[in-house]
Amino acid sequence: MKTGQRSELKSLCEQYSKFFYIGAAVDCDRMDHYKAIIDRHFNSITPENSMKFNVIHPEADEFDWQGADAIVSYALNSGKIVRGHTLLWHQQLPNWVFSSENHPICRESLLRIMEKHICEIVSRYKGKVNIWDVVNEALSDDIGFFRSTSWLDVIGEDYIKKAFCFAREANPDAKLFYNDFNGNKKDKQDRIFELIRGMKKENVPVDGVGIQAHYNIFYPELDDIKREIERYSKLGVRIHITELDISVFDFSDGRKDMIIPSYEQLQRQEEMYYRIFEIYRQYNDVIDNVTLWGVADDYTWLDNYPVSGRKDWPLLFDEQLKAKNVLNRVMDIR
Ligand code: XIL
After folding, report:
1. Which one of 49, 147, 243, 252 counts the least CB within 10 Å of its CB?
2. Is 137 a catalytic residue?
């Protein structure tokens, strides 16, 4: 065999098949563009935006299934699973939800909207999408326990539990996740732990915690990543890494002038990805899925976050859709 002959090499998800699923977030407008990579390297797909409230439920009596249907049928036809993302969030919400008939909405009406939203979506994909990020980012990053959102204001603290109950009712077989970021930080981790512990105690149907994992080449500490996984595993829930990417910029680095990543940045990124996947393998008894938030560096949400219009290179494939060196490091599981 010639060195590097691709057909003889394992793909990323084959390499990890005995540990966990390997996923990528993608929207249907880029699915064809990435098809070759996704077909080969990923066995789990998360719709990046197509299942979000504003896209899938733009008007009170209107659901737009086009994008979500396309992703789900592509995934199922190619033997991949789908992580449904996300039923309830404070972002990407259409205006109609909180301003029906131009007067402030009451708890009961909002609960009915939430119930309809969750039940319609979860039941449509019953048997096809069996994992849901039910509630996304509901906890505070500074003071207080809950993030202050309109869901909390109008419904009250039990809105999270209600959301999980509606989802379970709509599909008793689905695995239901609470998904959040910053859990590597002690305070936020305490809140996530308490939320899940409380829900389990009250028999609210929560099956797992999603760790978003939007990291960068300097952050976080590997020990904090381990501690977070260990902590949630004590709750007896499953863990999914739901949105992994490793920016080449420190969070406070506002530079906008780079047109290619530097050698040092790529080196650090390789090391970071390698160490992180090593940790995930170490905890594969509780981790079922590791999903990257994108496919290749030609498009990433980080091109507009945290610095708008600043190119980033956080993924395993480059801007020409070629495997970066980091892919080989991640595949090296000796
Ligand atoms: C991001 C998408 O990638 C962008 O395309 C969109 O404009 C904003 O949302 N945490 C989440 C994801 O849970 O849904 C977000 O996705 C990234 C942060």
Report:
1. 252
2. yes
* Dihedrals phi, psi of 45, to nearest 5 degrees: -130, 140
Please give the Cα distance from 55 to 45 (Å, whole number). 18
- Burial class, 142, CB count within 10 angstroms (exposed 0-12 / middle 13-18 / buried 19+): exposed
Give tens-digit pLDDT for 154-207. Answer: 999 999 999 999 999 999 999 999 999 999 999 999 999 999 999 999 999 999
Residue 49 CB–ligand 1 contact under 6 Å: yes
Closest atom of ligand 1 relative to the 181 alpha carbon: 10
Distance CA 155, CA 163 (A): 11
Query: pLDDT tens digit string along 258-306?
Result: 999 999 999 999 999 999 999 999 999 999 999 999 999 999 999 999 9
- Mean pLDDT estimate for the chain: 96
Cα 63 to chain centroid distance, Å, stands at 22
Ligand 1 pocket member 189 (CB < 6 A)? no
Pocket flag, ligand 1, residue 265 (CB < 6 Å): no
| Closest of 239, 134, 132, 138 to residue 191, by C-alpha | 138
Identify whether 169 is a catalytic site residue: no
